[in-house]
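Sample pair:
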Amino acid sequence: MMKKPATAPKKRSKARGGFPSADVVQFFQRLAAANPHPKSDLEYSNPFTLLVAVVLSAQATDAGVNKATRSLFALAGTPAAMAALPLQTIEDHIKTIGLFRGKAKNVLALSHILLEQHNGEVPRTREALEALPGVGRKTANVVLNIAFGEPTIAVDTHVFRVGNRTGLAPGKDPLAVEEALLRAVPPEFLQHAHHWLILHGRYTCVARKPLCGDCAIADLCRFPDKTPNG
């Protein structure tokens, strides 16, 4: 009597980053449950002040940027008001931020461009945003997501770390991690995904010693050197 060939084990459905799809859903469901309405730590009042704050946040902390921009935005919260300021005045307001001279030049220049080319409005396309001085892909993604509700993912140092450390979206550079996340994250979580990942990396999955004991997704994470306690 011939034996029936052994049935091959069923493969679990996987996201492209390597996580099983069910685990990806769990991953974001738990982050969403802990923080249903995530917000940026940067302070802003309109798309322009958001854009400026994100430009200033490169190689600086959000807390440091907020401290500097409170007085600057009280003085100039629109492209027209910012463009009317002397460069020295902008520098004086943001001098506590790293690379402040170059950033001040970018803020002044982009304010003029917004007035001259975009009727004083922050553009809603990546190409137009990235054409502004001091605006790269990450900054454009933040503005598109927060100001205009686009389902983009901005990969900063925290998102890069979480994507690689957990195994959710490994990549050798920010673009690779962004592309892996866009493939892996279910559509219903894309709107807030980068906020959840940034905040998780900033406060729980920290660089030197992650707080694995306090982590809502520790059992899903593939980091081999988990800390036993938060």
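Residues 152-214 form a domain with the Endonuclease Iii, domain 2 fold (CATH 1.10.1670.10).
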